[in-house]
Amino acid sequence: MSDTLVLSARWGRPNSAALSTYRADGGYGTLDKALGLDPALIVDEVKKSNLRGRGGAGFATGLKWTFLPKDIRPRYLTVNADESEPGTFKDRYIIEHDPHQLIEGIALTCYALDIHLAYIYIRGEFAKQARILEVAIEEARAAGVIGPKLLGKKDFDLDIHVHRGAGAYICGEESALLESLEGKKGYPRLKPPFPAVVGLWGKPTIINNVETIANVPWIVQHGGDAFAALGTGKSGGTRLFGVSGHVNRPGVYEKACHYNLKKLIMEDAGGIVGGRALKAVIPGGSSSPVLAAHEIDISMEFDAVKAAGSMSGSGGVIVFDESACMVRALARLSRFYAEESCGQCTPCREGTNWMEGILHKLEAGHGTAADVDKLEQVANSIAGNTICALGDAAAMPVQSFIKKFKPEFLRHAEQRCCPFGDHGWGLTQAPQDAVAGPVRYAR
Amino acid sequence: MTNHAGGVEGLPREKVEQFDRALAPILKRYPPDRQASAMIPALRLGQALFGHISPAVQALAADRLGTSPSRAEEVATFYVMLETHPTGKHLVELCTNISCSLMGGDQLWGYLKRKLALEKAGTTADGRYSLREVECLGSCGTAPAMLVDEEMYEQLTPQKVDSILKGLS
Predict the structure, then answer these.
(1) What is the pLDDT of residues B47-73, one digit of tens each?
(2) Nearest by CB to A125, which of B29, B137, B143?
(3) Phi/psi class of residue A190: alpha, beta or left (left: φ > 0; alpha: ψ in -120 to 50)?
């Protein structure tokens, strides 16, 4: 297993976010070299790297870039920093600890794709992270890294701006993000046309996740083949996996993208709190189908997790121990989707509220076995019937929780109460090691 | 909605001028023919200056961005961080989503309600605090977490909550 750190090498160092730190480490040297290259070569390296989108969908980044129409200008780049999927908390650490790596990634991407204006769309709740980005961009501008000439020598003007959202999960969906960036409510657009063809202000727009773009400097420096070799099959590189819930060492871990999920939880994250037994794992953010304890000895590579019936999605791993009530957990998740449904499509707007209502009824002990069937029916009616993926995202947890833990749902109906009561839900004290710090990375 | 020499009906002239001064650099981030893109930052600015985003503030933002007040209203009412009604002096927003909840967020919610003598989300009688539950804040590895006046606090305990609230002006 490779020990290479592509993304978190500087995390935790003093002043790791400063331009001087980044430059002392050779930062912006890759951009310097790239300015002498044909931009098409950069696109080729990214294609060769097998870099796949880190926002959740896992789409091949190089392929996405080729969807830009050849002759339409201007084109725009939008970096998605709307990190809002429950269980996902990785992009914020890239921004906090190494914003210049992201900025160099943006500069390289823009140079490769002939883009002169980029926006970083960051969720409104990340006030501190937005300030860090603004400071870093200002530093880069003042030092002549970006602006009228890249690194003060290449006639290629580039401007980067931070655009803060204001609290809406849906704006992480790329077309809703564009609507929001255009000053509107976040209603997803019908696709096609895809944003690469008709995007921001009707112009071709590439939208990539923060982690995706932060990989670009390494790929250009070391070559696409070297990046591909860090991973396996059709997935190159390392990934930032965020582990939260009932583990001893919650945090972000940079690992090869095909790292073993069980090892990540039981070794890196220190195993289950209080020596309790593992019950379930959501492997890739709250929308990904839940896995039972016996199903987690798998590679986290996109296609491998898919083969196991779930998704490695955003890499947000949520761990439940034996004390957790699956009905209560699902009820909370369903409330999230009901709250965050934008309301545009009827199946999602109505269905998410129905699911939330039925689940709270079951958890309160007022439900019946017929309600469990109805719940499943509602989920099946949402899935595939909406403009964007939020409908599926709301349905998949419901479908998978029932599939994997149906007896627990029925027990709520039979006993007319939650068999778990309040006991054990929510730790009353932090796990032993959690106070050591928010960021963890392992070699 | 037109304005008279910079003043929008019902809004203090001085603050409107302040709004215009602060808005100018924000507008530069967007192409001249795409100024309506600044709607969220403009409304956020209005919220900071006027306390909340009243219809008059919506009209002000719309006017300055060259778009309709209904566009401003559409945005002001869609995003949870944009307040169309007055809130308490300090806004306390606790995440109770799954990872926070697994780490004691629900107990903290109960604790905060008791501490602020509120039965549910709302504003304290003295207008000092508004309390609400919010969705995932992206602090799952450092749960439970909350925002107080838009600043994030993580790895919360009841004691930590006490000292954070005590430190507010």
Answers:
(1) 999 999 999 999 999 999 999 999 999
(2) B137
(3) beta
